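[Q] Does anyone have a clean structure-token version of this?
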Amino acid sequence: MEMTPRERFLATAAFEPLDRPFRMEAIGFWHETLARWHGEGLPPEVGDEMAAFMHFGVDLQLPVLLGAHLHPGFDPVYEEKVIEQDERHIVKIDVSGCKVRVLADGSSTIPAFLEAPVKDEADWEGVKWRLDPDTPGRLEPWMVLIETARSVPLPLCIYISGLFGTHRHLLGFTPLMLAYRMQPRLLHAISRHWVDFWKGVLGHIAETKTPDMVLLWEDMCYLNGPMIGPDAFEAFMLPYYRELIAYIEGVLEVPVVGVDSDGRVTKLIPAFVEAGVNFIWPFEVQAGMDVLEVRRQWPRQFVIFGGMDKRALYGDRRDIEAEVKRVVPAMLAAGGYIPAIDHAVPPEVSLDNWLFFLELVRETGGGL
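[A] Here you go.
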């Protein structure tokens, strides 16, 4: 019997039998990728990620994006303001209140961080009004999706800024590293507010519809490992993670709580599991993540989403076939797996290779 996308998503999270695997073979598409594909036959009306997901037949969700990688959940956000500009770069204040330098031509890149909105406790007191769960109209832009989730068979997925993500948004990366030693009281004050803030926001959402997933954006690992070690995680993050996730899973009865972190996340997996996380993505192969080994060590504790090397799609069909066969059959047999590459689709991938990859993954997972 054919499942709905919501049923399929929840059954995946519960390691239950499926009619077929949940389809979301990438977490997104670079805009340069879609621009390339328009020259290779992609219809011009497929101009953004949502249109691409629909065009390629993924299992849709209802995504509510409450800041996450863009800002820590501010309402109102900072007004973007250009400070200076030349032919190559723009220096501006972005929506998170950070002073950043970006490429003037709009190319996708990680902004160069120059200055953050919080340097001390006085700055924090001046900023946290933007993180009030009861701000009038905070959820208004998302209420159509939240209300729609009551009547359509799609998973309602809430994307929020995780705790490390919030600390980094507010202080900036290098100042945050120093703050663990020099300003622990500030970090604990932010963390306490983070728990209360998201309890309030998620509680308001649940008054209309209980989410199916809450996903915390962290991006707290580099190529060789995490930006903070397990000891710092235990001191500055774990107590607050436990409290928030206990509320999400226990009080609101949300079945899936996930973490989004690039890089080599291996050393932090035990802490995430201890805190109650049961969904992790994207498992970047170039950072040494091997989902087959992760599943061997953690057979049923969390859903694994991703883990196929996107760089295999740069090559020929033999490269793609080898990567799909390396990962998909064994991971689907183990359960709790959503087949996907290990991040968004970059512009090095041709449309022909992407379509071949989709066909192969879906055939391997039980047909089209």
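[Q] Thanks! Anything notable?
[A] The first helix runs from residue 5 to 13.
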